[in-house]
């Protein structure tokens, strides 16, 4: 067994990887899901009118205005969020980048992966978009990567590659 000294300057940091972008349809999916969420919230805000008080109408207008402002902000930042998200595959690990204000790059070594699955939620199926779910078995959020916004073919290719890499790392 050898224990050679390594130098940080000799290695490429995860943050400087070339991340593959998600499908452009994922941006449309996010916009639709944002719109659905705010339509439901704004419809629920109408229940304020059931309050039999003089100030109920004013409160409802304020709440609806806040929801409308939040909706516009969410729709405006959706493209920026889409630009940031991406995944990268290397010889020994897979990484996923996310976070608009607080960037996060989650990396799981292939040798630690215990489960890989491909799935889609009902809205994702309308856009023909799937996600790949990668779990390494550790407790908490650090042991889990979910890469959304993939075509079924790409998700299945990544799944096959990850499974192949985990099997070759076991040998």
Question: What report would you give on this structure?
Answer:
- With 171 residues, the protein is of the alpha+beta class.
- The chain contains four helices and seven strands.
- It has a four-stranded antiparallel β-sheet. It has a three-stranded antiparallel β-sheet with strand order 5-6-7.
- A hairpin with a 5-residue loop joins strand 3 and strand 4.
- It starts with 19 loop residues before the first strand and ends with a helix.
What attributes characterize this protein structure?
4 helices; alpha+beta; 171 residues; 4-stranded antiparallel β-sheet
Reconstruct the topology from this structure.
Blueprint: E1 20-21, H1 25-45, H2 56-84, E2 86-89, E3 93-98, E4 104-109, E5 115-119, H3 122-126, E6 130-135, E7 144-150, H4 152-170
Q: How does the helix and strand content classify structurally?
A: alpha+beta
What's the end-to-end separation, in Å? 18 Å
Arithmetic mean pLDDT:
88
Low-confidence stretches: none
Q: Major sheet: order of its strands?
A: 1-2-3-4
Q: Percent of residues in beta strands?
A: 15-25%
Output the number of helix runs.
Answer: 4
Radius of gyration from the CA trace?
21 Å
User: What is the helix content?
Assistant: 40-55%
Provide the succession of SSEs: EHHEEEEHEEH
Shape: elongated
Total E-strand runs:
7
Major β-sheet profile: 4 strands, antiparallel
């Amino acid at each position: 067994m050898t224990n050679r000294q390594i130098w940080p300057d000799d290695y490429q940091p995860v943050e400087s990887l070339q991340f593959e972008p998600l499908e452009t349809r994922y941006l449309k999916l996010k916009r639709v899901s944002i719109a659905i969420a705010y339509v439901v919230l704004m419809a629920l805000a109408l229940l304020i009118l059931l309050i039999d008080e003089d100030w109920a109408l004013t409160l409802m207008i304020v709440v609806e205005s806040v929801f409308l402002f939040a909706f516009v902000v969410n729709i405006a930042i959706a493209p920026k969020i889409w630009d940031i998200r991406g995944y990268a595959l290397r010889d020994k690990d897979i990484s996923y980048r996310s976070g608009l204000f607080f960037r996060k790059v989650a990396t799981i070594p292939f040798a630690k992966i215990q489960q890989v699955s491909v799935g889609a939620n009902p809205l994702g199926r309308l856009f023909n978009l799937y996600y790949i779910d990668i779990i390494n078995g550790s407790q908490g959020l650090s042991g889990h990567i979910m890469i959304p916004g993939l075509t079924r073919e790409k998700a299945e290719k990544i799944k096959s590659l990850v499974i192949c890499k985990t099997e070759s790392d076991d040998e």
